[in-house]
Write a structure and sequence with these properties.
heterodimer; A: 364 residues; alpha+beta; 12 helices; 46% helix; globular; B: alpha/beta; Beta Polymerase, domain 2; four-stranded mixed β-sheet; 6 strands
């Protein structure tokens, strides 16, 4: 009988872009159990609501993570607006949805590049990050920054994006779509890629339901859960929206879902641009408006990695009493532990990368 | 758009309630702890995908001694949140399937998030003062309204007569006499400049 050995994996590992530690209990080449550990870079950002007023905190929420930064600001601002009973102009809601979809494209391209890099597929890595630059250039042109956009404020948007600029974005996305199709078709039909991904890290539909998984990780196991289907904000005005799912339940299925979501996001942006109203972008609430005492509210939005939860509770002053952010990675840790059970040690990096954990978000 | 609901749940009923939610097919979203004035609160969120409803179970008044039953047996995804609430807030969970024994987050001090910062304490005191002031104002307004109603249709009190220029100047002199001489000189100079400006404007007209 093979002897059990504990193989430490991370927090510093070539395949891990962020620090997470896994104790892999292995028997020969097979992982019997995986025990995750996080907390290496915990920053206590939620606690900062004590010392910042509710308007300032948008900028801190954005700095939780460099990939989902826009979404965190958006989620926090939305939750605070619900708490204070603020109505946001439709144009501001459309602009938020457009920027959120651009963030999804940027996140998925970054992830695809990292996955290609882990394969040793260097040219694909370079192509993905080259295409990602298109989105970052759009951010820079429209918001003045590439990562931390600081365009969302409680009450609306800090500034508008004019219609000619929105049209230019659509044109750039058409070019991006054409180039992206080339590299995705190459990757998804590649024999070596398929041999590394197909049938690896299997999570059944039942397990995914049982573990309350979210995002592309859950959609690849056939779960049709996507907060955009609830029609929050501008998503309610889309003619037709259906989450992209796959029934392959493995690493290849997760790749397929993410790759298809890029096309879907491009289509959503183009539809929103064609329908965008002109009723203003809102602005900061008056200085006498503060979050109500003991009022509480939360929102659920669909981040690139899945459903994210933002909770706020007021205390009748300009400070928020409690802010809570639950990111998709926290929710998918249980799924990651399950996916790693019974796999070969050599497949561990691939499985972790297709789950795409974001430790910065988890360690807010 | 989904709906949001907050429901209080006694600690003793927590496990039974979560069991029934699991049976109804609700998805577990998250749990977190928070530290109000006394004790601690836990908020469990579940999502009903059929009715698009987010249900929040709020368990109030948890102390360091309270034994909170773990829900990992029902929803394993809760393991990271329970260990987090234990490490950052000091919540004592029992019967955890995956228990890191306080080492899930490598923090320097015990329960760092449960510490009420001076800023948070000040904000709470300010909120309490504002609340008390609002209550006092409302009570005063109610009292005045009651007195007015009791007086019936009595004639309103006459308005005090407006002060003449001389009376105003006299009152100002009294105020200046009570002031610090240096400050009084500055005020006098400002008043003189104001008077000169007023006179010049009058001449212009």
């Amino acid at each position: 009988m093979a002897r059990k050995t504990i193989l430490p994996f991370g927090p510093q590992h070539p395949v891990l872009p962020e620090p997470v530690h896994l104790d892999l209990v292995v028997e020969d080449e097979h992982v019997i159990e995986a025990i995750p550990q996080i907390g290496f870079v915990h920053r206590g950002l939620e606690k900062l609501v004590d010392t910042r007023d509710y308007n300032q905190f948008v900028y801190i929420a954005e700095r939780v993570c460099g990939i989902c930064s826009f979404g965190h600001g958006y989620g926090y601002a939305s939750a605070t607006e619900h708490l204070m009973g603020l109505e946001i102009p439709r144009r501001a809601q459309y602009l938020r949805a457009i920027l959120e979809e651009l963030s999804r494209i940027h996140s998925h391209l970054l992830w695809l590049g990292l996955l290609a890099d882990a394969f040793g597929f260097e040219s694909l890595f370079n192509h993905c990050w080259r295409l990602r630059e298109t989105v970052l250039d759009i951010f820079q042109r429209t918001c003045g920054a590439r990562i931390i956009l600081s365009i969302v404020i409680v009450g609306g948007m800090a500034h508008d994006i004019d219609d000619s600029e929105l049209k230019a974005i659509c044109e750039k996305l058409d070019t991006l779509k054409r180039d992206y199709r080339e590299i995705v078709d190459t990757m998804m039909n590649d024999t070596s890629v398929k041999s590394r991904l197909c049938g690896v890290g299997y999570i059944s539909f039942e397990d995914a339901m049982e573990l309350s998984m979210v995002g592309p990780f859950a959609k690849a196991s056939g779960i049709e859960h996507d907060m955009r289907t609830t029609g929050f904000d501008a998503y309610g005005d889309l003619d037709h929206f259906e989450p992209i799912i796959s029934n392959e339940c493995d690493c290849y299925g997760r790749c397929k879902v993410r790759c298809a979501e890029v096309y879907q996001s491009i289509d959503i942006i183009k539809e929103l641009v064609s329908k965008i109203p002109h009723d203003g972008i809102g602005g900061k609430p008056g200085p006498k408006m503060v979050p109500p005492e003991n009022g509480q509210s939360h929102v659920l939005i669909e981040q690139p990695r899945g459903e994210a939860f933002y909770y706020v509770r007021g205390n009748g002053t300009k400070n928020i009493e409690r802010f809570r952010m639950r990111t998709p990675t926290s929710q998918n840790l249980a799924g990651m532990v399950r996916a790693l059970q019974g796999v070969e040690v050599a497949d561990v990096p691939m499985i972790i990368l297709t789950i795409d954990p974001c430790i910065s978000c988890t360690e807010r | 758009m989904y709906t949001v609901e907050f429901v209080e749940c006694p600690l003793g009923d927590l496990l039974t309630r979560v069991q029934s939610l699991k049976h109804e097919g609700l998805r577990f979203v998250q749990l977190f702890a928070e530290k109000p004035e006394a004790g601690m609160d836990l908020v469990y969120t579940f999502y009903d995908v059929v009715n698009d409803n987010a249900l929040n179970l709020v368990v109030n008044g948890i102390t360091e001694e309270s034994e909170v039953p773990s829900i990992q047996g029902l929803y394993f995804a809760a393991f990271s949140y329970e260990n987090e609430a234990h490490d950052l807030y000091g919540v004592n969970f029992v019967n955890m399937k995956l228990d890191f024994g306080g080492h899930f987050f490598n923090v320097g001090i015990d329960a760092p998030m449960a510490i009420i910062s001076p800023e948070q304490k000040a904000a709470r005191e300010k909120a309490a003062k504002a609340k008390a002031a609002a209550a006092a104002k409302a009570a005063k307004a109610a009292k005045e309204a009651a007195e007015k109603a009791a007086a019936g249709d009595a004639a309103p009190a006459p308005k005090p007569a407006a002060m003449t220029e001389e009376e105003r100047a006299k009152k100002m002199e009294e105020k200046l006499a009570a002031m610090d001489p240096e400050k009084a000189a500055k005020v006098r100079a400002a008043l003189a400049a104001q008077a000169a400006k007023k006179a010049a404007k009058k001449d212009g007209e």
